[in-house]
Write a structure and sequence with these properties.
heterodimer, A: Aspartate Aminotransferase, domain 1, four-stranded antiparallel sheet, 36% helix, globular, B: alpha+beta, OB fold (Dihydrolipoamide Acetyltransferase, E2P), six-stranded antiparallel sheet, 5 helices, 21% helix, 34% strand
Chain lengths: 444, 131
């Protein structure tokens, strides 16, 4: 395929065919204040050597190199990536493959995605998982739209304030212009979501709760399911750290109707915040309302096992404006990678790794407590927690940064009421020495 | 696909231009899709049914039919409240292909029985199909 720009002759021919005098004339319907009229504000072109230098300089300003210990999660998690995942996922057969429209040409990709779906469904305790969404945030927005579709005439959804603030922003961007209202549910002193006022809210199609939530606190999903279903609403759960379900009871068996979240933890480096993948699944009765691609297993005319995209009538190339979503793709290589990661660790490995994250986090909490810090919420946590220091933490934070340790995320920008408190994340990449160093600086 | 002359269009029921049929069954009215509709759709694999107790106006969308190649909406020939749905279609949606006039989809208590008289007779419906 050639990627050459159109020649002036071709542009003139196309304009003539549609009866436009010029490109400006073609773009006339776009409001003037949405159009760029000035010159491009771009620096002069650089040579390859200069450009490499420039990028090296930019990279050096970031604390994401292998020498730095980062105790920040907040939706993006550093985990060891097994070499099996790295070498398999970088195979060109997977890396360059595009969407598998032709099953006769794409059995490998389809089988890989089918295995991703199967492993994710087992992890989350749901009947059906799709081939992935763009990321955790858009998956949550799609889950709530799905809830509105199932509930038919209701116009509101409720989301926990303890859901990642970026996810809630994406939910508002998806729902509000479409005329839906998003109600937020506050959190209690435990850090868990307050569902006590739910029965007094009307017109709510679905309620979304994140667990572990943005503060790291594990929500009581079974109690939430009872309350939410009791109020005649659908129960949506989301997550930013799927590893937690190696240890915790999965959301499906707790009663969630739709389960979604970010899958970056599974074999994908945090990079600069992406790419990741939106994991998305539901209980069987809601399958026809599921957004996105779905790979199914079938048999060919000779009875041999094969894989093919299925239930495509939900999708917009067939269903047009009545489609369940306008998503036309999935995070192919990221979903494949997450599948490889889950297969590499296995059920036992995921459980052990989750336990290790939990234990290290408990150790970190304990050492900080001994150094005089207090836990802001008393609910149980997995690998993140919010902590308050007796004195201004900034000097200690700077000293730790000089020692290549990024000690948590200050919450003021995301939750003004929690200004000065820090969200810490402890994965298996954080060693005891690092945690002891932090405690020593806090106590100093 | 069938030629128009091959279509089975019973005389004792009425039709709509969206290819539903309505049959008076005592106090209620049963609703399904015509032979033409099932033939055009091909193998039907899923029927989305409304809930019992749902109320619809004439022309309202009340469900969907999904075949291997398309999805189409179902529209109410008459206004009324759903008193029964044909749950046999959940497991055997192909009944609509096999017996389109036995495989009713919903049964309603009509709000205005005179709406039945406004629907097409078999002959008028065939004229409509012939264009």
């Amino acid at each position: 395929m050639r990627y050459l720009p159109h020649t002036p002759e071709e542009i003139a021919a196309m304009l003539a065919a549609i009866g436009k005098s010029s490109l400006d004339n073609l773009f006339d319907p776009v409001p003037a204040d949405c159009r760029m009229t000035g010159a491009w504000d771009l620096p002069a072109a650089k040579s390859e050597w200069e450009l490499n230098d420039h990028l090296r300089h930019l990279a050096a300003t970031m604390r994401v190199d292998e020498h730095t210990k980062v105790l920040v999660g907040a939706g993006s998690y550093r985990h060891h990536i097994p070499e099996t995942v790295r070498s398999l996922a970088s195979r060109s057969e997977f890396l360059t493959a595009y969407t598998p429209y032709q099953p006769e040409m794409a059995q490998g990709t389809l089988q890989g995605i089918f295995e991703y779906q199967t492993l994710t469904a087992r992890l989350l305790g749901v009947d059906v998982v799709n081939a992935s969404m763009y990321d955790g945030a858009s998956a949550l927005a799609e889950a709530l739209l799905m809830g509105l579709r199932i509930a038919k005439k209701k116009k509101r959804v409720a989301v926990a304030k303890a859901i990642h603030p970026h996810y809630r922003a994406v939910v508002r961007a998806y729902l509000q212009p479409a005329g839906y209202e998003v109600v937020e549910l506050d959190f209690l002193a435990s850090g868990r979501t307050d569902l006590s006022g739910l029965a007094n809210l009307d017109d709510i199609a679905a309620v979304a709760v994140q667990s572990p939530n943005f503060f790291g606190v594990i929500e009581d999903l079974e109690a939430a399911a009872a309350t939410i279903h009791g109020a005649g609403m659908l129960f949506v759960t989301c997550f930013t750290e799927p590893l937690a379900y190696g240890l915790l009871k999965n959301p499906g068996s707790c009663g969630a109707d739709i389960v979604c979240g970010e899958g970056q933890s599974f074999g994908i480096a945090p990079s600069f915040g992406g790419p990741g993948l939106g994991m998305f699944g539901c209980k069987e009765p809601f399958t026809r309302n599921l957004p996105g691609r779905l790979v199914g297993e079938t048999k060919d005319l000779e009875g041999r096992r094969g894989y093919v995209l299925t239930l495509a009538t939900r999708e917009q190339h067939i269903r047009r404006e009545k489609a369940t979503s306008n998503i036309c793709s999935n995070q192919g290589i990221c979903a494949m990678t997450a599948g490889m990661y889950m297969a590499s660790l296995g059920g036992t490995g995921i459980r052990q790794l989750a336990r290790l994250n939990y234990d290290k986090t408990q150790y970190c909490k304990e050492t900080l407590r001994n150094a005089g810090a207090t836990m802001v919420f008393d609910g149980p946590v997995f690998n993140e927690f919010v902590v308050e220091f007796p004195t201004d933490f900034k000097p200690a934070y700077e000293r730790l940064l000089a020692k290549n340790i990024v000690a948590g995320l200050e919450l003021g920008a995301l939750y003004p009421e929690l200004a000065g408190r820090h969200l810490f994340c402890v994965t298996e990449t954080i060693d005891k020495q690092t945690m002891d160093t932090i405690a020593a600086e806090v106590g100093a | 696909m069938k030629e128009l002359e091959e279509l089975h269009l019973p005389d004792d029921i009425r039709y709509t231009d969206e290819h539903e049929w309505a049959r008076i069954t005592g106090e209620t009215v049963r609703i399904g899709v015509s032979d033409y509709a099932q033939d055009q759709l091909g193998d039907i694999v899923f029927v989305e049914l409304p809930a019992i107790g749902d109320s619809f106006g004439k022309g309202d969308e009340f469900g969907t039919l999904e075949s291997v190649k398309a999805v189409s909406e179902l529209y109410m020939p008459m206004s009324g409240e759903v008193v029964a749905v044909n749950t046999a279609l959940t497991d055997s949606p192909e009944l609509i292909n096999q017996e389109p006039y036995e495989a009713w989809i919903v049964e309603i208590k009509p709000a205005d029985r005179s709406e039945y008289e406004q629907l097409f007779s078999a002959a008028a419906y065939l004229d409509l199909l012939k264009g």
